[in-house]
Amino acid sequence: MPAHPFHADDDLATLASSPLCHVSACPGCGVVHLSLPSLTLRFEPAAFHEVARLLGQASRALGGNGAVEAPLAGEAAAHPGTPPRSGWH
Question: Of 22, 57, 68, 73, whose Cβ has the fewest other Cβ atoms within 10 Å?
């Protein structure tokens, strides 16, 4: 991926947001920013689509409906088919 200048938050268009993360894109260069509390990953659009596809596949393997959304803290009991985290390595 070619080097891109860092963008001020004001320059980015919000694509989606939750209490866990925020996804935005630069309208000028198209780079997609996946921001977590202590980390921001930057993707070219095609790479972001591939990561999203892979996360959907992993979600289905865990018994989810294929959506990339995970339950928020405290909602795990609402998904009885999901194994506890300690069971995964």
Answer: 73
